[in-house]
Design brief:
homodimer, 376 residues, alpha/beta, seven-stranded mixed beta sheet, 51% helix, 10% strand
Chain lengths: 376, 376
């Protein structure tokens, strides 16, 4: 966070989630959490810490009305643990109702602009990304997956929106930026609002699961939904925010660009296990001290990995936490235990993903055909 | 012109074309004119006053190599006389070689943004615009006509370009503008550079005929062609500039938005004739004075109409000019003569256009199918 602004393009950390409620009006989960019959792992563990208008999605679920779940990925790399969090949230919301449709944007134009990745290379990675999300549990029957570079509706919305915003509005949300980043923001607003176009059944609630740092895009989309209400009938999109996982190398934010900060879902399981073993922890300088006063799980990226991803049972996560603070668990043992979990998880995931590559290609192709056949 | 900048979105006049050579580096026609075997009406009469790299197009013609002719129309209104000038230039360049392909962009997204025209309404006007240009002589066999709202390649290029420009570059060309106008400029650069994409045969010379006030878009496109040379192999586009016709009501620039400043190609011929009769002239306060010292054809929008559009023979245009300055011709008679020409022209044009409406629809449809079937 910088100059009291969240930076969706930065590598900044969010160290105080409380501030986000007060300063940006992100609502707490309290008011909506009791309405979820089977709250997700992220919800139960406080990883999903905030929301905007999530009640609208719960209403749709309760009344068996259609809604959309929207998010995207920049195919500049393979799924890593941050991407997995958003994917997990999407899959969770898709599972809550037969009337939920997932819209999944592959931001290949952004990957070209930010990372110099050619559209052809993006295309190859995109298939792997889709196989990843299928392996995580996405139901392809109620999913539309598209590449930004091929979806004229998104680009058209971005252009239309560009005429409805002022530089001052954009500066207030994002700070002074180059026009390329402003356009990138408008394209994301296009992604978020596209599910409400007539060809997709018209205005409907949409939930966007994102990391806390992406809230500026949500605010812009909500502002635009209001500004263009008259022409499009948009309902302001809802959102749910997850905390950002701590970087394995002790850096401030889990970043796709640093290979030591995280591991990838397609990474050699042994390599991922090694990264865990050499990871930064919340431990004390000596084992003796750790035994005496306990470790600090709240500051520990290794504990985050248990909490966010690899301790599937809440009880287990709680036990790791308590044992850490109680001085029962030392960092060495804790890492070894996690390394085994990670290795096993990756082996299974990669097997599953491999078997789903053809399904991924089919989903991309089916979506493309559906989108192309619709009135434009 | 304002703050030493040309304003492509303004209603400003260009009063001194000489300045454009010195200040913006627009080259004179002298060096290339002798190479045209049959110079166009605009060229012969000095209406086309400048160019950039037009020699490249002449080389392509001489060597029987492919080149493109690119321009567009915002379908916020029917063809008027300014639009006709660009169309005449496009048709002229298309006629110079069997290897010339016209790319004609219908800027419906801009029409929505600037004029609030729905895409459906644009679509109806677009058919009429295309019928107009067919009636003016476009060969549909070597023409690609597309709506910006449907052409993902243009939008994709605009996005890619947005990441390669800085706000300072855009400010230097356009002044401080809202992001919507910057994006609109980048989209126009996308239009101009699209003919060089691989699916259209790759890099090639492109000539863009424009009014003098549109030079900023040409400069931006040429800068971008250089910046993205490595990835796309772009050849900087060539351009040819025509003078702006004087407004019939004496205002500074012929504008689409003022109904008294011009007439439309679909206008009731009697109404157009009436506009001519009540038009502003370069005449003297009294007939007596006019007889004595002559009129001022160079300041006269009525003379411009002869020169730019309705005196088909050079001899005739010259005679009108000489008779005006010689005091032989009075404004009343001069207008009556023009009104008759205009009425006859519109009647014929409208008959031709009516008979070409179906061809226009077919051209739009054929282009759409061709573009959709190409690799994206």
């Amino acid at each position: 966070m910088e100059n009291d602004r969240l930076d969706p393009w930065g590598e900044t950390s969010v160290d105080n989630y409380q501030r986000l409620h007060a300063e940006f009006g992100i609502e707490r989960m309290d008011s909506v959490l009791p309405r979820f019959k089977n709250p997700s792992l992220h919800m139960r563990r406080g990883i999903d810490f905030g929301q905007r208008d999530l009640g609208r999605i719960l209403d749709a679920i309760d009344n068996n009305k259609p809604f959309a779940v929207m998010s995207g990925i920049k195919p500049s790399g393979i799924f890593h643990l941050g991407t997995k969090m958003t994917a997990d949230d999407m899959i969770y919301f898709q599972s809550l109702s037969k009337k939920a449709t997932v819209f999944y944007a592959i931001a290949d134009v952004e990957a070209y602009n930010d990372n110099g990745l050619s559209l052809q290379d993006s295309s190859k990675i995109a298939v792997q990304n889709v196989a990843d999300i299928l392996a995580l549990g996405l139901d392809p029957e109620r999913a539309v997956v598209y590449k930004q570079s091929q979806e004229i509706r998104v680009m058209r919305l971005a252009t239309v929106f560009s005429a409805g915003v002022t530089n001052n509005m954009l500066r207030a949300i994002y700070g002074e930026r180059q026009v390329g980043l402003y356009l990138s923001a408008l394209i994301q607003a296009g992604d978020i609002l596209m599910p409400q176009l007539p060809e997709f059944g018209g205005p409907k609630p949409v939930v966007v699961p994102v990391g806390a740092d992406q809230d500026p895009h949500i605010r812009l989309s909500r502002d635009l939904a209001n500004s263009f209400q008259k022409d499009f009938g948009f309902i302001p999109p809802s959102s749910i925010y997850h905390k950002l996982i701590k970087s394995l190398d002790g850096a401030t934010k889990m970043s796709k660009r640093s290979s030591t900060s995280t591991f990838y879902l397609n990474e050699d399981p042994a390599s991922a296990a090694r990264k865990v073993m050499s990871g930064f922890t919340g431990g004390r300088p000596t084992v003796e001290e750790q035994r005496r006063i306990g470790g600090e799980a709240d500051k520990c990226p290794i504990y985050d990995l248990y909490l966010f991803h690899f301790a599937m049972e809440d009880e287990y996560a709680k036990r790791v936490y308590d044992e850490c603070y109680g001085g029962v668990r030392t960092c060495g043992d804790c890492k070894k235990e996690l390394a085994t979990l990670v290795k096993r998880y990756l082996e299974e995931h990669q097997k599953k993903r491999e078997s789903l590559m053809k399904d991924a290609e089919e989903l991309l192709e089916k979506s493309r055909k559906t989108l192309d056949s619709m009135a434009r």
